[in-house]
Amino acid sequence: MKFATPILVTLGISSTNAFSTTLRPTTSTSISTTTALNAEKKRVVVTGLGVISGCGIGHKDFFQNVSDGKSSLDVVTRFDPTHYPCKIGSEVPDSMFDPKDHFVNPKNAKSNDRFTHFAVAAARLALKDAKLGDTPETLENAEKCGVFVGSAFGGIETFEKEVLKLHKKPERPKVRMILKVFVVI
Questions:
Q1: How many Å apart are CA 19 and CA 17, to the nearest integer?
Q2: Tens of pLDDT along 49-105?
Q3: Among the CATH numbers 3.30.70.20, 2.60.120.620, 3.40.47.10, 3.40.228.10, which is that of 7-139?
């Protein structure tokens, strides 16, 4: 089973520490008051957007297509939806998205699953939109910037493909599949 999920990445900076790790003891009666006061102090400014969606790659194309009423909904093609009650979805077609365009080294796209391609592409588009640069060489403070992709399982698309291959030829497991599916970046 494969799912294509639109990804929106926002980059933000804050005039105060929006991600403070300082913990202060509070009582249950003061939690809502404390939360309301902290909400006033912690403001985040969105500085860059990166969108990977069936409606468009990049926030300008995405918002223009949505404003124009263009829909990316269609019959699902990345897996067989025969046994599902809903057979439509918004996929990012291969003709619209080439992961190699978004990796500094295009060979790295081969060793990552599609969900990682979307995350890397959205993050780079957000960095570009924020005019911060999108590679370690173009970022002013590259050591202060990072992208974290967490997954409890990895790429379902690769897992399905490789399990079917393993079923056909159980004597020839591929180590590459294990890296793409089980390694959390």
A1: 5
A2: 899 999 999 999 999 999 999 999 999 998 889 999 999 999 999 999 999 999 888
A3: 3.40.47.10
